[in-house]
Specification:
The complex is a heterodimer. By secondary structure, chain A is an alpha/beta fold. Chain A has helices at 40-47, 70-73, 92-98, 101-104, 110-122, 138-151, 168-183, 196-202, 220-223, 226-233; strands at 2-11, 14-24, 29-33, 55-60, 63-64, 77-80, 156-160, 188-192, 205-210, 213-219, 238-242, 245-249. In chain B, helix 1 packs antiparallel against helix 2 and helix 2 crosses helix 13 (261-286). Classes of the chains: A alpha/beta, B mainly alpha. The A-B interface holds A 48-52, 69-75, 78-81, 84, 86-90, 94, 98-99, 101-102, 105-106, 149, 152 and B 63, 65, 125-126, 197, 200-201, 203-205, 207-208, 210-216, 257-259. Chain A: InterPro entries: AAA+_ATPase, ABC_transporter-like_ATP-bd, ABC_transporter-like_CS, P-loop_NTPase, Siderophore_ABC-ATPase.
Amino acid sequence: MVEVHSVSKSYGLKAVVDDVSVNIEKGKITSFIGPNGAGKSTLLSIISRLLSADTGEVLIDGQKVNETKSRDLAKKIAILKQSNHLSLRLSVRDLVSFGRFPYSQGKLTKEDHAFIDKAIRYMELEDMQDKYLDQLSGGQKQRAFIAMTIAQDTEYILLDEPLNNLDMKHSVQIMKVLRRLADDLGKTVLIVIHDINFASVYSDYIVALKDGKIEAQGTVNEIITSLTLKQVYGMDMSIQEINNQKICVYFS
Amino acid sequence: MREKSKLLLLFILAGASIAGYMFIELGPNWDYALPRRAEKIAAIVLTGSVIAIATLLFQTVTNNRILTPSIIGLDSLYMLVQTTLVFFLGSTSLTVMNKQINFAISIAFMVVFALILYRLLFRREGQNIYFLLLLGLIFGTFFGSFTSFMQVLIDPNEFQIIQDRMFASFNNIQTEVLIMAAIITGVVLLYLTKFVKYLDVLALGKETAINLGVDYDYTVKRLLVIVAILISVATALVGPITFLGLLVVNVAYEMFRTYKHSTLIFASMLISIVALAGGQMLVEHVFTFSTQLSVIINFVGGSYFIYLLLKESKK
């Protein structure tokens, strides 16, 4: 379980994350939603040690993140940020192989190759595994990066806006993969996501942030209500139930 | 295995240019010329390797392929130290003074300056590495202006002596200084081997590197210190020559099209040796010492740099 205990982070006088406490359930998909500047990505970065909190602490399976060795954490938690611009000439397979670095420190073993193959198969990248990253489309590149985090074989997978710049087809494809990671492999998935309908349909839990504070948290049914969403986004939405899934209509 | 054959080819080329430099027009007094040439070629191999490695490390740490470590102002500081010595002690100090002392003073100033710069950078957590470059650039310009100021004030004859120092040169290298430089380089490179495995991961960027378990701040700090020492050694040995690094590292990237630093390190070292030994051959046998090696390097490197910029902007 990931426990966040009253974490705060400010830049200058502005508190980006303001005294946030939250527990993330194991084996589920938890989505962070909220308007721009709510502190979602910052919170994700703090949980994954990319940033350090000003006050408060993050515990992963009872261990304090800032007191654990980075290499040990890399076997437990994987983070993928939204911008992944690379000027390197890397093939898809090379990139996925980097996911094994915490284990092999660069010298790949047979076991590592097995994990790499599995991750490539999981993201359906077999045909393009020898292509270079600069030859791929945005969606394919995103899948390659996710394959790297899968090869890292961590219990916790954190993704910052994994659907950025993707069309519906690829978005659905990636969300389905995340669902399988949680359901079949028991991984804990934590995503920052802007499209609340994707959050509604594919997550187990939703944490809504606003102005650096948690506005609401709970199961999909508890959060996806007109009232809660109005509090979070400050706009009226009508919630429709289609095929047992709650869909927000906000094009008023 | 094409990578291995390319490396082998480079190795042969480097060997050939070394041999070429050693034996072309050796003349009848070979017992006099040979040890002197050997000394020079040793300096060339040392400087070439050091500059190539330092630039490669610097570009990996900054994730930028058009930067050279000269941006943190070490070249300008070297010129400032040399000018200050002449300004206060007169030009005889450069010619008369023990070269080892001059070497030690230059290195000490450059390393201490780099350490202070890094201190400023890493005092606060999460400071952007481009802040370091900006600071270095400002200090470099400051040193440069201060140097020009003193150069304007001194006697023109004294200025001639300094002007000699403004261009890298492999003539007049003392054996004792060379040995000192080799020892420092050896120790630093030995320390570097501890970090080589992290280089490929660092090239993926800060966030990915942290995600993959690299202790980012610790590693980058040490790599930057290594870069500073290597650059200081090379500059104090032969003069400002960091531009060479930009050239050879990029040629290595173009030739090998790989991200693997284990290959890139050796490739850029060998290319560097070929460029320097070949260039020195040109200087001695074609231009008969009418020009300096660094002038040729800067000319070729500058043209290549413009080509790189044009190519990047087309993307």
